[in-house]
Amino acid sequence: MALKIRLSRGGAKKRPFYRIVVTDSRNPRDGRFIEKIGTYNPILPRESETRLVLDVEKAKEWMAKGATPTDRVARFLEDAGVVKAKTRSNPNKAKPGKKAEERAEMRRQREEEAAAAAAAPAEEAPAEEPAAEA
C-alpha cells in the first residue's frame, strides 16, 4: 500500500480549509483516509497560530512507516524541522513575461532619449537686438 501524507479539501466555495491526512495514494483527494494529523486554513493571516496545526510526532511515525508527503505538506514539514529542506531551482519562474519585457524596453528607450536630449548642447535663442530708432 502506497501511503501519502496530503491535503484533503473541505470548506465552502472560495473558502478553502484543508485537513492534513494520511491515506492510500489510490483514494480520491477528499475520500477515505487513515488518520488526520493536522489542519491548514489558508484564509487566516500568516501570523495566526491556528493557520497550520500539525501533529509532528504522528507525521514522523507515518514517515517511518513509509508514507511520503506531497510537495505542499513537505514544505510544512520543512518549516517544522521534520524533513530536510529540498533545494528548488526554477530560474525561468523569475523571468518577466513578454509584455513586461516590452514595457521595460520602451522605458529604457525613453530614458536613453531623455539622457541624449539633456546631454545635447542647448541651442541658444538669438538675443533680441534693440530696434534702432530712426
CA-to-CA gap between the ends? 114 Å
How many distinct helices? Answer: 3
Assign the CATH topology of the domain at 3-80. S16 Ribosomal Protein, Chain: A
Sheet having the most strands: 5 strands, mixed
Looking at CATH, the homologous superfamily of the domain at 3-80 is Ribosomal protein S16
Low-confidence stretches: none
Please identify the top-level CATH class of the domain at 3-80.
Answer: Alpha Beta
Strand arrangement in the largest pleated sheet: 4-3-2-1-5
Total strand count, please? 5
The general outline is elongated
- The helix fraction, in percent, is 25-40%
What is the overall pLDDT average? 88
Structural class: alpha+beta
Strand content: 15-25%
The rounded Rg comes to 31 Å
What is the correct CATH architecture of the domain at 3-80?
2-Layer Sandwich
Pfam family, one: Ribosomal_S16
Region (Disordered): 84-134
Organism: Futiania mangrovi
Family: Belongs to the bacterial ribosomal protein bS16 family.
